[in-house]
Amino acid sequence: MRVLVTGGCGFIGTAIVDLLLRRGIQVVNLDKLTTSANPAALSEWEGTPRYEVVQGDICDLEKILSVLENFQPDCIIHAAAETDVDRSLQSTAQFLQTNFVGTYTMLEAARHWWAGRGGDYRFLHISTDEVFGGLSDSDPGFSEQSAYAPNSPYAASKAAGDHLVRAWGQTYGLPVVTTHCSNNYGPWQFPEKLIPLMITNGADGEPMAISGAGHIVHDWVHVEDHAQAVRTVLEHGENCATYNIGGSSDQPHVEIVHMICVELDRRFPDRAPHSRMIQHIDDTRAEDARYAVDTSKIWRELRWRPETEFRSGLSRTVDWYLENRPWWQKIRQNRATGAADQRAA
Ligand code: NAD
To answer: How remote is the CA of residue 278 from the centroid of ligand 1, in Å?
Structure first.
């Protein structure tokens, strides 16, 4: 099998590329190498003949067509996106360009390239549960039938891309499939995201600041489980279907931070309790939002479910960050000094 992955240098993309390469699959990774990219996570595959990174923009039709022509993939996994919700408020046009126009360009490239070739192929679009908006405490988790109700420019731009994917499947018969995943965590996540931020701040003796009371609830899935789910959908999902992916682990932010403190207390008892470093900062945005996904469809139809229980996944993640200090400390220093290139060496 030959798979073109877009955004394969991002947090989730690197886990997917790593999994595919471990399974002996040939991969081309098309990535613009923005400040979100982290090629270091795939350094062990450098020089492998089965793997190539191509720097390119998913909005550049000529570039994509030339990659398709040269590589002749059987499948595309489309993971490239602008993903930071806070940044989507300041750089909305960039989010629309990448997540909407970029997805349109990928679909058009796939449609033209595959036209008349026949054979088995697939376009897997990676989306997010955030397209469904938030839930109240009593609501069931989002199902594949839930109505779209995006609440941020990021979520709206992803929702717009999802609609294009569906339309290209219905109108042109492009064999598309879409996944909606909840929040991911695990190794190589940039240290400004909640879980690595709390681990690295706690490890460095800095305040562990939570927005508001920290009662916002998300479902969390380990990134390696997400990658396995994507592979399962790629191989066995139904054309034009959508699948929710999640960890069946709804956790309020404040509880996650307390769990991290317990993990740090165990490793550094002389500095316990780390919970004394927790601070609550004012932030009224979406304070009480709850996000949860119903993953019964992917289990029922494709027999996928997450292998990583949240507490053990979190514990492994704490270990990973403690063992990989040079990587995240360099990123933190670069960000502190406002360096333009925030990528890890
Ligand atoms: P990320 O920000 O870590 O990585 C995105 C990657 O896309 C980067 O390598 C970046 O260089 C690349 N990219 C950005 N713009 C590009 C462009 N125009 N052309 C080519 N490459 C470009 O993102 P992530 O967290 O790995 O998310 C990957 C996908 O998974 C996204 O589609 C996101 O919406 C979805 N998702 C993420 C989460 C999560 O918790 N992180 C949850 C659900 C769904």
So the answer is: 29
Ligand 1 centroid to Cα of residue 275, in Å, is 32
Question: Given this model, what pLDDT does residue 322 score?
Answer: 98
CA distance 281 to 19: 38
| Ligand 1 close to Cβ of residue 80 (< 6 A) | yes
CA–CA gap between residue 248 and residue 281 (Å, rounded): 28
Residue 220, beta-bridge partner list: 183
Q: Whose CA is nearest to atom 41 of ligand 1?
A: 184
Measured between alpha carbons, how far apart are the two ends of the chain, in Å?
31
Cα dist from 3 to 32, 58, 166, 220, 288, whole Å: 17, 16, 21, 27, 40
Q: Of all atoms in ligand 1, which is nearest to the CA of residue 8?
A: 9
Residue 46 has pLDDT above 70, yes or no: yes
Please answer whether residues 142 and 131 qualify as being in contact, where contact means their C-beta atoms are separated by less than 8 angstroms: no
Buried b / exposed e along 118-141 (16+ C-beta atoms within 10 A): eeeebbbbbbbbbbbbbbeeeeeb
pLDDT at 183: 97
State the pLDDT confidence band at 199, using cuts at 50, 70 and 90: very high
pTM, two decimal places: 0.96
Strands (E), the chain: 2-6, 26-31, 51-55, 75-78, 122-128, 176-181, 183-185, 208-211, 217-222, 242-245, 250-252, 278-281
